[in-house]
Design a protein that fits this description.
164 residues, 10 helices, globular, mainly alpha
Length: 164
């Protein structure tokens, strides 16, 4: 994957955070931070990324399972180290990358990749399918923008490593 000379992980993190603040879910926000690169490589356009990420918000459709932004990391791992054949070597490389991303994600976001834990909702029940309204109160009581920013930075750092 060819990265622009100006490629900056911190800037990609801000892109993802901005996408979330515009109303995209956490997974979509991470994916959209890389839409220009994936598009230039002929791998995916914005509409496809929005579609792929649509059900992952709120820890799989507000069930508060795996964080949507970490799901975005996992999807991006497929673009960085694809496993497109049935062989074990590609899958091993992809899984290793996902595990590296999970370790980095846990380190930067309080020790978990689980949405409910990140939001302090231990022992929670799945919520209904209606997304929360995006108000100042919504953003004030959630760590999501920072978690999403961190997720995109992790992806960008792994992209840079892979490009070396």
């Amino acid at each position: 994957m060819t990265l622009p000379e100006s490629f900056d992980p911190a800037e990609r993190g801000e892109r993802a955070k901005d996408c979330f603040l515009q109303g995209y879910n956490c997974c979509q926000a991470v994916l959209l931070a890389f839409a220009d690169i994936l598009g230039a490589e002929g791998l995916a356009d914005e509409d496809l990324l929005k579609t792929i990420g649509s059900g992952f918000g709120g820890g799989f459709a507000r069930m508060r399972e795996v964080c949507g932004s970490f799901s975005g990391c996992t999807i991006m791992a497929g673009f960085i180290r694809p496993a497109v054949t049935p062989g074990l070597e590609e899958r091993k490389a992809n899984y290793a990358l996902v595990q590296e991303m999970a370790a980095a994600f846990r380190e930067r976001n309080g020790g978990s990749i689980v949405c409910g834990e990140l939001l302090g909702l231990r022992g929670h029940k799945p919520e209904g399918p209606t997304p929360s309204e995006r108000t100042e109160e919504f953003y004030r009581k959630r760590p999501c923008p920072e978690i999403i920013r961190n997720a995109a930075i992790i992806v960008a750092e792994k992209m840079k490593e892979a490009a070396l």
